[in-house]
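Lab meeting minutes (informal)
Scribe: AK
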Amino acid sequence: MDILSEQPDWLYLLREYHATFGTGSSGGSNAIRSHRRRVREEINRLVQADPPILGRQAEEKPVTAHLGRAFDLAATGPLNTMAATLRRLSGYFTWEWGYERVPRPLTKRYAYCEIAGPKGPVQAERIILGLVLLAPGTTYPQHSHKQIEESYVSLAGAWSENDAAVYAPGSLIFNQPGQAHRITVGDRAPCLLAYAWLGPPERLQAPGMTFGR
């Protein structure tokens, strides 16, 4: 079993996540500034721990037919080097839905994959880093995460959370634990989001993902 330091692309990817949460403005928000700092601290701990890289079974979902286009768009955006590393590793990703009950239309329009976390491939207990892929025109229903603080960083596509604004690639959105949120995606391009979760290890191990009513 290889360890992180023996797999350069996985190590480069973690460094890209670290850089993403270390550059740019927090918009004057102390909560976002604190979250970004904690994400960087956990990534530093993870790199220093040099965890094993697990060979999870790669798996696609219907929405991954849009992944190539998402990478094409991300290649011209502010996170283009991160997108290039993700593209090299994409053959190892395990895409999943995460919910026990997924609305049938959503099964063709959404999936996520875990990069670092309890389910790997990079083993971590105190943070989850991953990707969410949404097809054009998707509405991701309202949901929340108990005891988990979450942020999304856009790599490709235009999207909105809770109908508050339109976010372009490079934008970061922060959700406090338990904060309900709903995502909508523009109708001309897929949306690829990098996300970070922080929370108690037992909650990250079993986040109990459910949709609101």
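Next up, CB showed the second protein from the same session:
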Amino acid sequence: MSDEKTLNMIQPAPSSDSFNIGKVDPENDGEVFKRGEGYEDFRTVGWIHTAVIFLKLIFATGVLTIPSAMYTLGALPGAINVLGWQFLNTYCALIQGQFRHNHPGCHSIADMGNLVGGRIVKEITGVLFLVAFIIVGASGMVGVSTALNALSNHSLCTNYFTIIAALMVAVAASARKFEKIAWITWAGFASVFIAVFIVVVGVTTLDRPAAAPQEGDFDFGYHVIAHPTFAAGITAASTIFCSGAGTSAFLPVMSEMKNPRDYKKAVNWCMGLVTAAYLSFSIVVYWYCGKWVASPSLGSAGPIVKKAAYGVGLIGLCVSGALYVHVSAKYIFVRILRNSRHLQANTVVHWGVWSGTIAAMTVISWLIASGVPIFNYLLSLAGSVAFAPLALGLPGWLWIYDHSGYWKGTWWQKLQYGLHVVLILLSIFLTIGGTYGVIVQILEAYRDGSIDSAFSCADNSNSS
């Protein structure tokens, strides 16, 4: 594909903008957060901090779950899934960013749904956004509670550790601006990266996987191509897809950038690093652990390395959960206070709404974390139910909205139009098939004891 054709696929044709009617101040052209006297400035994040926030939103969850998904699919299909889904997620993130450049009144993916499909689509999209980030917020809490369990040798009931994790996440999420969270994301990303690297080095030093029988013959379980059931295969594919599908969370961050035109640069750096890390780390861990890989994968190299990895990665796991709670709370916060003076004023209403939304999102995520305490099932559920329509289907629709004339244009324009229709159909398949698959897997896990009863003290989070 030529550079010119690639550019055409990303850059939309001119479109009317229902958010920008009449003459407005160029500095605040359609933006949700205004600049000027009397406004608390929310647009303070540079592109480097933006890229790090994006990295932290994407990186922590996927790198902990992809090795176990590779066992289900096999090394080759697993690697193809990583590359394929990451390419689509990156491309769809660029579509969303370009769409927002054309329609700067869009603070969230729900605003984009409103523009292309009206109020009903807006509300459905908003609900899906909340569902997605509440579920991945729950996965962050499971990660923190798993770390606390590992570090304390399960000294408390897992349910208590989940409560502690929820409190840690809530405190970290409570900062109002992404600029304030940006500083802790540096430490969060570094901690998870180093923790995963410790595990990668650790598994290469073992004669046999830590979870495998240490004497006699055993089934290693490494497959170049595996043969899973439909339910298991679609759940694994959905888990890998979800590992890079949180791109709808990029949009609220974009609304707080100093220069939103730097969004594309931040996305490319983020997704390039994430893809390289996912592929290299997951292949090495699966190569050395086979079927004995843990989920989350930080527990794959034995108890000593597990404690070291969780000790180093605890900050990053907490920051991940905090970011997910923050973006879901920020969506509700803006919905409630938009177009009122309280949105950017230090009033009692402003702080009351912000504190209330943080508390509500934390409690709901905690309830889910306690009910489905297996890390990869949570991510697969989020990927199927919510991220498939948000990260694939809606971006395809956004592109079609801004290129409505392409279906009767040149052959190349018709091909592009058709490919974005296929993108929408793919999202429908992943939503239906993936949801079915993960429900089947969760029910089987409850039947065979992999998941104990909800709110129990059993440490289920290391199950794969």
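CB comment: The chain is about 70% helix and 0% strand.
No objections, moving on.
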